[in-house]
Amino acid sequence: MAFAFPDERWLSKSVLCLRDYNLNKFAHDVIAGITVGLVALPLAMAFAIASGLTPQAGIYCAIVTGFLVSALGGSKTQIGGPTGAFVVVVAGIVAVHGVDGLFMCTVMAGILLVVMGATGMGTGVKFLPRPVVIGFTNGIAVLIASTQIKDFFGLQLEKVPGVFWLRMRALAASSPTWSLTATVLAAATVATMLLCRVLSKRIPGPIVAMLGATSTAFLLKLPVETIGTRFGGIPSGLPHMVIPRWHAGLVHGLLGPAFTVAMLGAIESLMSAVVSDRMSNDRHNPNVELIGQGVANIMSPMFGGLPATGAIARTATNIRSGAQSPVAGMIHSLTLLCVLLFAAPLASYIPMAALAGILMIVAYNMGEWREIPQLLRLTKTDISIWLVTFALTVFADLTVAVEAGMILAALLFISRVAATTTVSQVTDDYIEDGRVHILQDKDIPYYATIFRIHGPFLFGATDKLSAVTENVHKLPPVVILRLRNMTALDATGLFALEEVAKQLHAANRTLILCGAREQPSRLMHQGEFEDVVGPENICENVQEALRRAEEVYEGLEAKSAASGK
User: Fold this and answer.
1) Please, what's the b/e burial string for 346-361 (b: 16 or more CB within 10 A of its CB; e: otherwise)?
2) Which CATH class is domain 429-564?
3) Judging by DSSP bridges, how do beta strands 478-482 and 510-514 pair with one another?
4) What is this structure's pTM?
5) What is the pLDDT of residues 547-561, one digit of tens each?
């Protein structure tokens, strides 16, 4: 008799995936784990150095949290570890409270994440509107890039200020000390990573660039700063487990930063898990994922590690390399451990300019710059929220930006919901105009299906659109989305509609939208949504949409008949 778990909602993906695990999947997981482990090596060191810590702190973090996130989390192919999202906030905590303060803050953030997951708040992170999230990521990307200017150009600067405008002024003042050798090496690192991406997404650009730059600097004996000259190398051997010292006096001052780390960790990990779902055709468990992330962050400081979260780039690399289960993430962790045990001395030769080049690419990738032009076409409210969040992230403090973002999200939600309330008289014209929108007297053909959105489609509600795509391959050729009762739309909702349209198109389905009211229709036009689905697939009412569905189906039939001949 098979053993049945009482409630599978709280089981990690590593347990659930073992039901049909086999040797073939293990072989794929080994290849993927080793690949992503090598990719994670330069990134882990670079994030730690940019945060004001030693390179081994990043490796320790990647080993411990990478294993625990995969073993305990709710995503099948998520890779956990240090990420760019934490660089700025970690550097700020270390500057004010020291390394002990960072370890305390990480443990506190881990406890918050566990509580969020255990109380079912894993879905609560969705209540951040898209402009706020983009403002965060844009600001963090700018800050990361600014911290790498010194090493990218080989500037002689004793200490880089923590405040952005002071940092830029100090870097400008030291510009006469720039090194041509370091600049060329950093630029070559960037060019190598871009070339790898053009040739194939399967090529691990960071590891190829790091090996190339390190070999060049060593063989040509280039006069550039390396990990060895700055930090004295990386110690070999296992990281030692030490319980962080707890300073009660620091708790109050660390509450804000701990909340920031927890929120950034939750946002980043769940965003990464969504990317993982799309690439691997799976569905993550957000609450279990947050519990796994929380446990990983509680344990990381005990081995001298940084805060950690889901890493989107490494997760994508893991999936492209053939990962089948969380076992790949555990092997990624063991790969890093083997590097630490047997190849740590070689890391001393890695040039700082090469790591700076790698982080410049990371900063650009995480910036989501392509979404800015689309944002600028939306409402003034969305644009102002993005600008405020971006400015606070860069020029104030990330903790302030997170808190302001949450307040803006709440105010925006209240404003948008309030705007959906209308009072109007029912007239004969109103009744007559509504006849083309009703479904009761319409015949829905077998080649089409209709979904409807009822109520305001704003941030916090967009995950409900998964009802359309969760069984996309079982849908008929034409999908009609009825928007007659969708009372309001925002930038996050528009982004979700675009994602659904792209997923249906990839599955060879046609999406038709109909009946949009004034505000949603205006926003879709401002955001040039018709370019995504085609203007002919945006209809005034359901009657017109059914006629368009018939045209689409007849076109498919004609195409099929022509190809059959």
Assistant:
1) ebbbbbbbbbbbbbbb
2) alpha beta
3) parallel
4) 0.74
5) 999 999 888 888 877
